[in-house]
Amino acid sequence: MALELTNDNFDTEVLNFDGLVLVDFWAPWCGPCQMVAPIVEELAEEFKDNDKVKICKLNVDENQEIAQKYGIMSIPTMKFFKGKEIVDEIVGLQPKELIAGKIDELQ
Fold first, then answer.
1. Domain annotation covers residue 106
2. Which of 21, 30, 75, 78 is catalytic?
């Protein structure tokens, strides 16, 4: 299951993680976000035994501070963090294969 991020745990779970972190920025009212949610959960299951990859999601309505900090203008947006830096991003609904390929490429 993808880890639920908040304003309070973002730094610990994302910026201080020694590896690649995918953060899915989403909202409950967003149709495309609802379509990408099962993909994010499948990826979390597939990478759960990989201690260098973490799959997370952040509700932008409940955690506006983080969403604003990272300039989230449209959702869904997935940002890939590594070593406290954003190394890539995907905006909009994309197929699982593209997202998984990006994880494999960046880790």
1. no
2. 30
Q: From the candidates 33, 36, 67, 78, which is the catalytic residue? A: 33
Report the percent of the chain where pLDDT is more than 90.
99
Classify residue 92 as left (phi > 0), alpha (psi -120 to 50) or beta: left
Directed axis angle between helix 31-46 and helix 96-106, to 10°?
50
Tell me what pLDDT residue 64 has. 96
CB count within 10 Å of CB 55 equals 25
Q: Is residue 20 part of a domain?
A: yes
Per-residue pLDDT averaged across 77-100, rounded? 97
Q: How far apart are CA 20 and CA 82, in angstroms?
A: 5
**Is 30 an active-site residue?**
yes
* Residues across the chain: 107
Q: Which domain holds residue 41?
A: 3-100
pLDDT digits (tens, 9 = 90+) for 35-78: 999 999 999 999 999 999 999 999 999 999 999 999 999 999 99
